[in-house]
C-alpha cells in the first residue's frame, strides 16, 4: 500500500485524486496540503502547505502527488527533499528556472512529471510520432479546449504535443494566428479555447489538399488524470532518485 500525500488537496484535481484513491486498495491518501484554510477533504486531514516537510514525516508518506501551481510545486519539492519522499508532478506552466529546480530535486528523490496522466494522451503522442512521417508536406494545426478556470495557455499537454511534432517536423508555432498572413509551410498554428467545465480536449490535424488526418483525445472526467497519477505514485515508490515520465509507468 503506497502512502500518498496530496498537494493542492482542496483543488479540482487534488479532490479528485483523494476521491479516486478511496476506491483503490494499492494506495491510501494519508494527508493533504493546501493554502485554503481547509482542514479536511473527504475524511483526509489537510494541513497548511508551509508545514509539508514535518507532515510528510509525521504521516509517514511514501510519495507526494502534486496538482497546484508551479510556485507551490517547488516549495513542496524542498519538503520532499528534506523528508526523502518521491514526487509525482501533474502541475503545468513551469518556466525554465522551474524545470531546472525540478531536475535539481530529482538528484535527491525520484520525481515523475507528466503534463497529462491520461493513458489515451500517451497513446496519442505515440500516434503522432508514428503518423507524421507518412504525411510530410501536410499543414499542421493544434487545438486545445479546457474549462474556464485553467490558468496556463496553451495547455501543458498541447506543449508536449508540439514538442512531439517538432521531433518529426521542423515547424515553428504560431499562437492564435491573429492578423497573421497566409500560412507558411514551416508553421503550426496553436489554439487555446476556455469554456465551461470542459475537462480537456486536444486535437492535431494534418491536412493535405484532398484529405484531413485528425488525431484527438477527449478527457471525459478528471478521474482519468487522477488514476494515472496514482499509478505513477505506486510505481515511483520503489524507484531510485532521478527524473521519470509517464511512459515509464505505462511501459513497466
Ligand atoms: P485548482 O486551481 O482547482 O487547484 C489548485 C489547488 O492548489 C487549489 O486548491 C489551491 O488552493 C492550491 N494551492 C495554491 N497554492 C498552493 C500552495 N502554495 N501550496 C499548496 N496548495 C496550493 O487547479 P486544478 O484544476 O486542480 O489544476 C492544478 C494543476 O494541475 C494545473 O497546473 C493544471 O494544469 C494541472 N493538471 C494536470 C493534469 C495532468 O494530467 N498532468 C490534469 C489536470 C490538471
Description:
By secondary structure, the protein is α/β, with parallel strands linked by helices. It has two domains: 2-117 and 222-251, Rossmann fold; 119-219, Dihydrodipicolinate Reductase, domain 2 (2-Layer Sandwich). Helix content is 34%, strand content 28%. It has eight helices and 13 strands. The strands form two sheets. The chain has an eight-stranded mixed β-sheet with strand order 3-4-2-1-5-6-7-13, with helices on both faces. Helix 2 (52-58) crosses helix 3 (70-83), helix 3 packs parallel to helix 4 and helix 5 packs parallel to helix 6 (156-168). The longest helix has 14 residues, at 70-83. The model has no long low-confidence stretch (mean pLDDT 96). Nicotinamide-adenine-dinucleotide binds at residues 7-8, 10-14, 33-36, 49, 67-69, 72, 90-93, 114-117, 156, 225.
CATH superfamily of the largest domain: NAD(P)-binding Rossmann-like Domain
Report the C-alpha radius of gyration, rounded. 19 Å
CATH-scheme architecture of the largest domain: 3-Layer(aba) Sandwich
DSSP helix count? 8
Chemical compounds bound to the protein: nicotinamide-adenine-dinucleotide
Portion in strands: 25-35%
Features:
252 residues; alpha/beta; Rossmann fold; Dihydrodipicolinate Reductase, domain 2; 2 domains; 8-stranded mixed β-sheet; 8 helices; binds nicotinamide-adenine-dinucleotide; DapB_C; amino-acid biosynthesis; 4-hydroxy-tetrahydrodipicolinate reductase; diaminopimelate biosynthesis; EC 1.17.1.8
Amino acid at each position: 500500500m503506497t502512502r500518498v500525500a496530496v498537494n493542492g488537496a482542496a483543488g479540482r484535481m487534488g479532490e479528485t485524486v483523494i476521491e479516486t484513491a478511496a476506491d483503490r486498495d494499492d494506495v491510501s491518501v494519508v494527508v493533504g496540503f493546501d493554502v485554503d484554510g481547509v482542514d479536511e477533504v473527504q475524511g483526509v486531514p489537510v494541513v497548511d502547505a508551509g508545514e509539508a516537510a514535518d507532515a510528510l514525516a509525521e504521516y509517514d508518506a511514501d510519495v507526494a502527488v502534486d496538482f497546484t501551481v508551479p510556485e507551490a510545486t517547488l516549495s513542496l519539492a524542498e519538503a520532499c527533499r528534506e523528508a526523502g519522499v518521491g514526487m509525482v508532478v501533474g502541475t503545468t506552466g513551469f518556466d525554465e528556472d522551474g524545470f531546472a529546480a525540478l531536475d535539481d530535486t530529482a538528484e535527491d528523490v525520484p520525481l515523475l512529471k507528466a503534463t497529462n496522466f491520461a493513458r489515451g494522451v500517451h497513446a496519442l503522442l505515440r500516434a503522432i510520432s508514428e503518423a507524421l512521417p507518412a504525411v510530410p508536406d501536410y499543414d499542421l494545426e493544434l487545438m486545445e479546449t479546457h474549462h474556464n478556470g485553467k490558468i496556463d495557455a496553451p495547455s501543458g499537454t498541447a506543449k508536449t504535443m508540439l514538442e512531439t511534432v517538432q521531433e518529426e517536423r521542423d515547424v515553428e508555432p504560431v499562437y492564435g494566428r491573429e492578423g497573421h498572413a497566409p500560412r507558411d509551410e514551416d508553421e503550426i498554428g496553436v489554439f487555446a479555447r476556455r469554456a465551461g467545465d470542459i475537462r480537456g480536449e486536444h486535437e492535431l490535424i494534418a491536412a493535405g489538399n484532398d484529405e484531413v488526418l485528425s488525431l484527438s483525445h477527449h478527457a471525459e472526467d478528471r478521474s482519468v488524470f487522477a488514476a494515472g497519477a496514482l499509478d505513477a505514485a505506486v510505481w515511483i515508490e520503489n524507484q531510485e532518485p532521478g527524473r521519470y515520465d509517464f511512459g515509464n509507468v505505462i511501459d513497466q
